[in-house]
From TrEMBL:
SUPFAM superfamilies in the cross-refs: Aspartate/glutamate racemase
Gene that produces this protein: murI
Binding site residues for substrate: D7, S8, Y39, G40, N71, T72, T195, H196
Keywords, alphabetical: Cell shape, Cell wall biogenesis/degradation, Isomerase, Peptidoglycan synthesis
Protein name as catalogued: Glutamate racemase
EC number: 5.1.1.3
Keyword Electron transport: no
Primary enzyme class: isomerase
Pfam families associated with the record: Asp_Glu_race
Role of this protein: Provides the (R)-glutamate required for cell wall biosynthesis.
HAMAP family: Glu_racemase
Reactions that this protein is recorded to catalyse: L-glutamate = D-glutamate
Upper classification of the organism: Bacteria, Pseudomonadati, Pseudomonadota, Alphaproteobacteria, Rhodobacterales
Organism: Marivita lacus
Length: 270
């Protein structure tokens, strides 16, 4: 009855932590493609190929449902996977949907025409690949009109977080926020469009100011997954054990993950 959670590196652990707390009886298999991280600097075809390979590995582990806890993979690969690759008895879901549901205050199944929403000026902080894809803007436009989205590619931030260099990470956050504010001086909301970024949420909030609503993904994804499994219990796969898998060096990744979540995490080779 396992559910798969995939990320290019350690950022998806923020999502895993939230979904594990929300659904304590569901085993989760986490796969980090640390060998090829970060995805944010790769082209769309490369991200697609790597994401498909990782998804197949999670299917082999008994996970019929896989969450792409990676915004770059969700932006660059998910739609193509769903349209032409995922078999009928499997599901692959991304992390954009719960975020857009929260921002627009309408459920994904609501297929009524796009309408005006309360938030009109949105700052999007994401990896360069996610920004290039314009996937967030595309999905948002299906549900809302009149929303001005200003995207800021946060180069270097994922690497700093993965390496545990929080001094550099904080400096980068403040630099990227400054760059965003030169383009959009008064955003109403900010989207942290990478699953690494919740670790820096307080810094983002401080740099943006208390009047800006900062949307992070982990808890939103957890609630959305709980709702989805309640409606589709058949999508809980045959796997019965939680595990952590990596394409990188298991010891090194385990050490970084332990620092990342502040509890002992043991990865095995994928």
């Amino acid at each position: 009855m396992a559910v798969g959670v995939f990320d290019s590196g350690l950022g998806g652990l923020t999502v895993l932590d939230a979904v594990s707390k929300r659904l304590p009886d569901v085993p989760f298999v986490y796969l980090g493609d640390n060998k090829h991280a970060p995805y944010g600097v790769r082209d769309a075809d490369d991200v697609y190929t790597l994401t498909c390979a990782a998804t197949e590995r999670l299917w082999d582990a008994g996970c019929d449902l896989v969450i792409l806890a990676c915004n770059t993979a969700s932006a660059a690969a998910l739609r193509r996977m769903q349209e032409s690759w995922v078999p009928r008895d499997k599901r692959v879901l991304g992390v954009f949907v719960p975020l857009i549901e929260a921002l627009t205050e309408r459920q994904w199944g609501d297929n009524s025409p796009p309408r005006e929403v309360a938030v009109q000026h949105v700052a999007l902080f994401a990896t360069p690949a996610t920004v290039r894809s314009r996937a967030f803007q595309r999905e948002l436009s299906f549900r809302a009109i009149g929303v001005d989205v200003e995207a800021q590619a946060c180069g270097g931030l994922v690497d700093a977080i993965e390496e545990g260099d929080m001094i550099l990470a904080e400096a980068l956050v403040r630099s990227h926020v400054d760059a965003l504010k030169r383009k959009m001086p008064t955003p109403q909301a900010a989207i942290l469009g990478c699953t690494h970024y919740p670790l820096m949420q307080e810094v983002f909030q401080d740099a943006l100011g208390p009047e800006v609503a900062v949307y992070s993904q982990a808890n939103l994804v957890a609630e959305s997954l709980a709702d989805y499994l309640g409606r589709h219990p058949d999508m809980i796969g045959t796997g019965d054990a939680s595990m952590f898998l990596t394409t990188g060096d298991p010891k090194r990744v385990s050490d970084h993950a332990t620092h990342f979540l502040r509890r002992r995490i043991q990865f095995d080779a994928a």
